[in-house]
Amino acid sequence: MKQLIILFIACLSFGVAHAQDERFEEGNQQYSDGNFQTAIDTYKGILSTGVESGSLYFNLGNAYYKNGELANAILNYERALLLKPHDKDIKYNLELAYSQTTDKIESVDNFFLSKWVIDFRNKTTSDTWAFIGVACFLLTLVMAALFFFTNSAFLKKAGFYLGVGLLLGTMVTLTFSYRQKSKLVNRNHAIVFSPSLTVKSSPDASGTEIFILHEGTKVEIVSTLGHWKEIQIADGTVGWVEETSITII
After folding, report:
1. 5-10, long-range: CB < 8 A, 24+ apart
2. Which CATH superfamily is 189-248 part of?
């Protein structure tokens, strides 16, 4: 009986995956035919079932872009990039979409080494970094065994130095995996969806107006107080906005 239940669940999962694949292809065909709103509805229908993928968000972003909905396009490109941080097509389309937004905010320059580390970390996903980390750890154990159980001085040295290098590799790759996973779980960036958004100095409608943002601008959420969000833009300026005016990536 237990085996039959497992087989039933497996068949059911396969059937659901197959159905979702058919809907995805259907959405792609609608997009190709120029029926962008219908394609949007199809892709969103798939997402409503709990299925997520970088390709799905990317195609949804493309449909929104073609439909003239820039903020929604940027939102879905950003979500696609979270799942596929190494995808050049997503990055290109996202940059293209941002180039058409009203706000041109100069970002605070990161230290070049920090930027290089972030770019390297984004070469692949959390799962891949975790796999590499586990592989490095297992190889570290092999090098440790070589160091402790061999009689050859050369092999002992090789085992020691390689083991140290692999142990460092384990820590780095697992840290990368954790950071990539954290970006997916703790989403603290959002896209402005108001055509014109006045940022306040305090979480109150009567607060002093600091600056104005426009639709499609990306912000970082610093803190929350009631229905207000403290945000920070790329140049480091902070202020408060109502949560209904932005959408979490």
Report:
1. none
2. SH3 Domains (2.30.30.40)
Establish whether domains 2-98 and 189-248 are of one fold.
no
CATH code linked to domain 2-98:
1.25.40.10
Q: Round to whole Å and give the CA distance between 52 and 67.
A: 22
Please list the pLDDT of the chain residue by residue as tens digits (249 residues): 544 444 334 344 434 444 567 899 999 999 999 999 999 999 999 999 998 999 999 999 999 999 999 999 999 999 999 999 989 999 999 999 999 999 988 877 666 778 788 888 888 889 999 999 999 999 999 999 999 999 899 999 999 999 999 999 999 999 999 998 888 888 899 999 999 999 999 999 899 999 999 999 999 999 999 999 999 999 999 999 999 999 999
Spatial contact of 49 and 20, defined as CB atoms under 8 Å apart = yes
Domain positions in the chain? 2-98, 112-185, 189-248
